[in-house]
């Protein structure tokens, strides 16, 4: 019950939401960067 009370505090909810969204953004950035292996990063590199 103590954990449920602690999780119901607004500051704890804000921090948990922030950490979850930050983790999602880091995963998306990693996947975006990983998909560029052996590919041109910029289409006009040869000009």
Output the keywords.
single chain, 47 residues, mainly alpha, 2 helices
Structural account:
The protein is mostly helical and 47 residues long. The chain has helices at residues 2-7, 10-34. It has a domain at 2-33.
Number of helices: 2
- State the share of residues found in helices, binned by percent: 55-70%
Strand content: under 5%
Shape: rod-shaped
Distance between the termini: 64 Å
Q: Please state the CA-atom Rg, rounded to the nearest Å.
A: 19 Å
Structural class based on helices, strands and sheet pairing? mainly alpha
User: What oligomeric state do the depicted chains represent?
Assistant: single chain
| Average pLDDT, all residues | 83
Following the backbone from N to C, one meets helices and strands in this order, namely: HH
Could you give the count of β-strands? 0
Uncertain ranges? none
Major pleated sheet: none
Quick overview:
66% of the residues lie in helices and 0% in strands. It is mainly alpha-helical and 47 residues long.
Summarize the helices and strands and which ones pair or pack:
Blueprint: H1 2-7, H2 10-34
